[in-house]
Specification:
The protein has 76 residues and is mainly alpha-helical. The longest helix is centred in the middle third of the chain and has 38 residues.
Length: 76
């Protein structure tokens, strides 16, 4: 970090220390926890969507004729 960025970071930390109350700290913790959970859920959803797309690509044929052939094979 440059000296200016470091100075700004310290200033913001000092101001934040003096302005915070217990409620503010709890809300910040709660918000950061919820943000992390949302990000984790987004990653899990992305993985599920990818898995579903992969399985559907294998399960379903590209043309109706191929689908009929696959259906006949699955009946046996």
């Amino acid at each position: 970090m440059s000296a200016t960025q470091e100075w700004l970071r310290k200033k913001f930390q000092e101001e934040a220390r003096t302005a915070r109350t217990t409620g503010d700290l709890y809300n910040e913790y709660s918000n950061s926890r919820l943000t992390k959970e949302v990000e984790d859920l987004k990653e899990r959803l992305k993985k599920v969507e990818t898995d579903m797309a992969y399985t559907q690509k294998i399960r379903f044929a590209q043309s109706p004729e191929e689908q009929r052939i696959n259906d006949i094979r699955n009946i046996d």
